[in-house]
TrEMBL record:
Quaternary structure and partners: Interacts with PEX19.
Lineage: Eukaryota, Metazoa, Ecdysozoa, Arthropoda, Hexapoda
Domain of life per record: Eukaryota
BP GO annotations: peroxisome organization
Full protein name: Peroxisomal biogenesis factor 3
Keyword Membrane part of the UniProt annotation: yes
Chain segments annotated as transmembrane: 16-34
Keywords, comma-separated and alphabetical: Membrane, Peroxisome biogenesis, Transmembrane, Transmembrane helix
Source organism (scientific name): Ranatra chinensis
Function, in words: Involved in peroxisome biosynthesis and integrity. Assembles membrane vesicles before the matrix proteins are translocated. As a docking factor for PEX19, is necessary for the import of peroxisomal membrane proteins in the peroxisomes.
A Pfam family this chain is assigned to: Peroxin-3
Transmembrane among keywords: yes
Amino acid sequence: MFSKMRQFFYRHRRKFIVGGIVIGGAVFLVRYAGRKFVEWNEKEVKELLQKSRKQHHFQSTESTCNQMIISMSSILKDEVLSVVNTEELLTKLKSCDGDRLCTWEELKVSSFTQYTALMYSGIILVVLLRVQLNIIGGYTCHGLSETNNGIASDSTLQGDYLSLSQCLVSSGVKDICKIIKKHVTDILKDVSLKKMMSLKDIEQFFWSVQERVSNDPDDPLKNLSRFLSNANSARFQTKDIAKLYKILSETVEVLQTEEIISLVSSCLTQGFSQAVDRIADCFIPKRTGKTQEDPDSLTDCYTNINSIKLPMAKVVPIIYGLSKGNLVNEEPELWIQSFISMDKLLAFGANLYEAFSYSGQ
């Protein structure tokens, strides 16, 4: 029996050898494919977790950024209202002190200067903090998986870096108000308080101010880095001054690009357009509804809103109300909220975060 089996195996030895090789190869390939599938699956899960963690961290960064903007915006607004003080002029008008016409002329210039400076200061604040927070956020995100990253764990360094933007409130507002007032005065000096103003005229005013400021050598939008405090090592608490200077240098480089200058200018124009939309509510006469004599009066009022005109003397209180946030149904901080929610700035911040999350060292 054994001899028959030996003969059988001997006759079919090539088949058994080839079959063994095929089966062995198949087993090896199955096991290899299994290991590769497990590795691929683990890699996909790891990447998914990293992506989820990064997304969560970015959202947290955006939330922190928005909170900081809102917090600092109230301080910024108080500073603008203090530098361009309209309350004293209103007090003079109420008390009938001095030349009322002269006081009205001053109030006209001050009201427009105040709101225009508020808008310029607001967009600069939003851009500075969004750039700073997303650079820090990108570095920190990179540092979550890189133990040699000095920024992720150095809260003192982060605090020193973020404190640089306080220069905008401490001294920057005065410079902005000075530049704005100069150009507003030139534009409005020949505009009578009796002149009838349409929404188009007001929009043209804001456009003229932007054009004049953009041609000014001291245009704040073209010198955003000037609103960061001087890098004096004596005022910093962090020990890693070299790392702080490196981040500051990168921040200045970002703020000086043509891309961001164009972006800020575009967002400011959009902000003024939204302001004109809010002013339009004050141009609409208050009506209770249609009347039998004129059933289409209410519809015509909305259709022909651009044809409605008010004397400059009535426009001044409206502009004053924009700065104070006390127009009809006006939210107190709507002027800064409009900049916070602009899609262009949100997209820019996301791109900046993404870039620095890969470049962090």
